[in-house]
Amino acid sequence: MRAFKWGVLGGGQMGFAIKSGAVKAGVIRGSDVIVSDPVFNKQSYETKWKSFGAKCKEENKEVIQNAKFILLSVKPQILPEIADELAKLEEDQTVISVIAGQKLEKLESLCGKAKVVRVMVNTACSIGHGAAALCANDAVTAEDFEEIQALFNATNGAVDILPEKGFDAFTALSGSGIAYVYMMAEAMADAGVHGGLSRDYATKVAVQTILGAAQMAAQTKKHPAILKDAVTSPGGCTMAGVRTLEKLGYRSSIIEAIIATQERCQNF
């Protein structure tokens, strides 16, 4: 039996968001988590992890030797550097990879005898409102998969089992897409400041507007175009803004950004 149920390789933002969200939701205990990252002796990551009781180590071997479920949360370019360590994983262990663009086949070749689950999620999982997609290789038992699925169910507003061929598109739309929504909020706040509102108030209103629009779409289940049309009166202020956005390629720029993100995922 392994000393820790949950391990994390890579103590950065995504790994922390997933595990801290799970601890907040009460589905795992912080004391059941061990995390490794070589920068623990240089940066403030360690303080964050220790805030909920996780055990922090600088060497990956501590996690690989002692954890049953291992969250693989490093940058894609780091994988070759830790390949020798990953090769030592055993049959009783399961790797949960959140690395963009890394397919099950490649992960299987790297992770020794371990079972492999591929997951994509965005950072809103830290507050229980993320979106997650999961797929697993054939070696993963139903019991283990259900436990992993429960972890992500507790920290995300939407969790789906998705065929692997859809993962790059999901990564672009949700994993990276959340950053584009933040950019929208920032731009809306800037416009509010230009109009004479204070920075704090403009940001508050921009965020609430996006939150309200998302809740309207989720709760009414109406197509976004229908909800947009309900706000757009003939000859009105909103239509003037819609016309400007169309002239500037608003929708096209979003589409192209997500396509570019997907293509980048495919090139890792």
Structural commentary:
The chain is of the alpha/beta class. The chain has 2 domains: about 5-165, NAD(P)-binding Rossmann-like Domain (Rossmann fold); about 175-265, ProC C-terminal domain-like (ProC C-terminal domain-like fold, Orthogonal Bundle), CATH 1.10.3730.10. About 50% of the residues lie in helices and about 15% in strands. It is built from 12 helices and 8 strands. It has helices at about 15-25, 45-50, 60-65, 80-85, 105-110, 140-155, 165-175, 175-195, 200-220, 225-230, 235-245, 250-265, and strands at about 5-10, 35, 55, 65-70, 95, 115-120, 130-135, 155-160. The longest helix has 22 residues, at about 200-220. The model has no long low-confidence stretch (mean pLDDT about 95). Keywords: Amino-acid biosynthesis, NADP, Oxidoreductase, Proline biosynthesis. InterPro entries: 6-PGluconate_DH-like_C_sf (IPR008927), NAD(P)-bd_dom_sf (IPR036291), P5C_Rdtase_cat_N (IPR028939), P5CR-like_CS (IPR053790), P5CR_dimer (IPR029036), Pyrroline-COOH_reductase (IPR000304). Belongs to the pyrroline-5-carboxylate reductase family. This is Pyrroline-5-carboxylate reductase.
Strand content: 15-25%
The CATH superfamily of the largest domain appears as NAD(P)-binding Rossmann-like Domain
Shape: elongated
Strand line-up of the largest beta sheet: 3-2-1-4-5-6-7-8
Task: Kindly summarize this structure in a few lines.
It catalyses: L-proline + NAD(+) = (S)-1-pyrroline-5-carboxylate + NADH + 2 H(+); L-proline + NADP(+) = (S)-1-pyrroline-5-carboxylate + NADPH + 2 H(+). This protein has 12 helices and 8 strands. With 268 residues, it is α/β, with parallel strands linked by helices.
